[in-house]
Amino acid sequence: MAPERKEFDLYTFVAGVALETGRPFALECNCGGVVTIMPPFQDEYVICPRCESKIKMLVIEGDPGYVIGADPDGTPRLLPVQGSSKPHPDKLPPGERDVILARIREQLAVKGR
Length: 113
Ligand SMILES: [Zn+2]
Hints:
The chain is of the alpha/beta class. The chain is built from 2 helices and 7 strands, in the order E-H-E-E-E-E-E-E-H. 20% of the residues lie in helices and 32% in strands.
């Protein structure tokens, strides 16, 4: 990949439903700082009041509790979606999380051929 100018410090996923309720919600930065998002939300990014990171919000339609991402080594992992009413992926029962991750690995294995 060609190097790009760094436009944002962080990316976070936000449930579309959180922006549709018209109620403010708290967006958590990786540093633990919290940005309160006040609707109507029009900007595509927010600034963390604590570490001043520029956080780009990637809105995921609906109310998913997580999206599928990967570590740099390709290990699949579940990334939390903020503002969702679903539990944080870290709070899923370990059995359930393992099942999801196993399914992803299977899909990746199929795709890789
Ligand atoms: Zn921060």
